TrEMBL record:
GO terms for molecular function: ATP binding; creatine kinase activity; protein arginine kinase activity. SUPFAM superfamilies: Glutamine synthetase/guanido kinase. GO terms for cellular component: extracellular space. This is Protein-arginine kinase. Catalyzes the specific phosphorylation of arginine residues in proteins. Its EC number is 2.7.14.1. Keywords: ATP-binding, Kinase, Nucleotide-binding, Transferase. One of its GO terms (biological process) is phosphocreatine biosynthetic process. It is an enzyme of class 2 (transferase). Pfam families: ATP-gua_Ptrans. Residues 25-246 form the Phosphagen kinase C-terminal domain. Belongs to the ATP:guanido phosphotransferase family.
Amino acid sequence: MGKANKILLPILSSWLDLDGDDSDVVMSSRVRIARNLEAVKFPIAGEDELLPERVKGILDADYMLMKMSDLSLLERALLVEKHLISPYLMNKSKFGAVLINEAENSSVMINEEDHLRIQCMEPGLRLFDALERAMYIESEIENEVPFAFNPELGFLTSCVTNVGTGLRASVMVHLPGLVLTKRFNKMAEAIRSVGFVVRGIYGEGSNSLGHIFQISNQVTLGKTEEEIVMDLTQMMEQVIMQERVCRTHLKQKFHITLEDRVFRSFGLLKHARILTMLESLNAISDLHLGMELGVFEHITRQKINELILFSKPAFLRRAAGQDMLELEEKVIRASVIRDILQDV
């Protein structure tokens, strides 16, 4: 089987198939570094058609080059759902491409908003591990291709909010405790007040579904990459503690109500014949919470990740082998979820 075919199959990426630090709250960590070539027009002014092959020649053979023009819209959407490319690259890049390693925990987007966007993912709260790998990839490319850099401002990017380090560090978190105890808004305000931002599951412009959020840095200028990652890690330690406190409160004060909610959601996922995206993600969130609190012991975090990923629209169309109407999507989603849970 070719690497490209494997990447587009409904198989969990390695970083979703493992537990990491604080995985009861933090589902994954990601570091993304934006870079542009020196003395070359930025992609917003004109994309470099030859850049994908040029970067492929720098990185080792483990990386698979996939050009957006060679992929169908469905295949590009699959890469978005696996968090390997951005919605921007999927929709708006004429000569866009991505390099993806075999483990699917590192990818380099080419001709996105910037010439290069290097991103590395890790399970749980492992931002420093992701940063180390991303910086290694960046240095390998910089040895062959000089980057646009200003001594006073740092690395230059298409969007001024990325100037400096060009670094976006983010964590994907499951926060049902804070949401259900109505403490999330206060926590989100505190996060924003110290220079971080809370977004939906796909980052900027996306909505929160299933109590899953992305928390990332806003400041890229005036700090080193290590300082940004350290600040986010320390802030996340506070969020993790507050989420665990809220979960304990729910279990102690509302044990029967919580147990009923978890098993109702399990029954819905196990037996429903029609499921919307919102219904499924909310029910999966309940099941996830029940699993972490020991209310429901017959499911793993990896199974939760399968339920979330393989019930998304592009994967459903891949499973069906065709496009589908809204009702058909709901029917296929329910069927896929039942199949995943058949041994539970």
